[in-house]
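Why predict the complex rather than its parts? Because the way molecules touch one another can change local conformation, and only a joint prediction can capture that. The input here totals 464 residues.
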Amino acid sequence: MITELIITSTIKITLVIIVILTGVAYSVYAERRISALIQNRIGPNRVGPAGLLQPIADVLKLLLKEDIVPAKATKPIHTLAPMISIFVALCTIAVVPFGDSIHLFSRDIRLQIADVNIGILYILALTSLGVYGITLSGWSSNNKYSLFGGLRSSAQMISYELSMGLSVVGVILMTGSLSLQDIVLHQFGWKWNIILQPIGFITFLVAAFAETNRAPFDLPEAEPELVGGYHTEYSSMKFALFFLAEYANMIVSSTVIVTLFLGGWQFPYLQTFGLPPLVVSLLQVFTFVIKVVAMIVFFIWVRWSIPRFRYDQLMNLGWKVMLPLALANIVITALLIAIFRS
Amino acid sequence: MLNNYIPILILMLFAIAFAIVCVFLSKFIGPKNPNPVKLSTYESGMEPVGTARQRFSVKYYMAAMLFILFDIEIVFLYPWAVAYRKFIPNTVYYALIEMSVFIAILLVGYIYMIRKGALNWD
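Output of the joint prediction:
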């Protein structure tokens, strides 16, 4: 029983990690091509057909570069920081369901790495750990740009974590469960949380942009003032790990947004078509992937369309707009549930 | 129930292994030609002035402190939100009013914080 669990979950984990790493490589490629499209350029198109092998070339190049650790840096922490970042980015995916269950090799396999009943808390706990990677890298580099990048980033991430946590409360009120599978199952038919929780969706989306340090909230690595921000003093694979973690975070938060608000793997009224169970399962996974890809494209689109915030604007938005909005959302949701359900 | 957490443990081991392999792979594969200038701190091509371990603005501490306060308050909202539907239909307004009082107390602290200018960044 336990061995079977370990074997199936190891296979699932390997597949998921491969998908995420490939996803990271190709979302970097997509980002470069889409930004080129938006800025009326061509973008990478030399390595392989239409530049499709560019990510592999980039990784190889970074792997073969010299790993420079500044003489004044605190070396153990300098090495540890990118590891924390990538650890958090890869582990968050564990509780996200990418399908209901699939019947293969005469057993039902759940399409989720771990269905724990505290799914959302697990995600929030791990994303909070992400601050450590960035803050420690900024401090340990012993570089002024890095320090300011790390400081800004930690202040920004903890500020937006509040509104992120609060906007999730609305979703929990709708469902009455912390398990992500329950939340997806609750969003059958048209009852996606984006329709039932529009304010919660907007606050969560903005908080997700800030948490992943994506534009318009990419203050920690604002190039004109802070060079590379917290990863100024990183090179070779350690830099690659930060880069990887940033894009993996983007993918993972897309999956979380899709799960919480866009119906997860639910394809509206799929059960009424009378398809064979295997096809239904595969279609659900396919639906999930399509939604996540759309979300990633949205992330990229926003980055290349909206200018960066100033730091005081960012903090004002986080504390004086998002926080009251998310709180109001909770009270209104609870009131509406009380009125319509009793 | 604890069996549910075994896959998470395996995933964490995978992630740690991946991180360690990546960091040490580049250490072994990459070239090694250190020199004092290369290893000096980057400061836009200038000679580094002093150390980066200096004092920084107190506002960051304020943000961190307020975060802890509000985060703890938010944690109290979670069990309430999970249990809220169980109060339907009899005591749901009781649950709503109770949490409204809690949020109102939270708001008093919030307004005090804003009026004191704890988060003015200019």
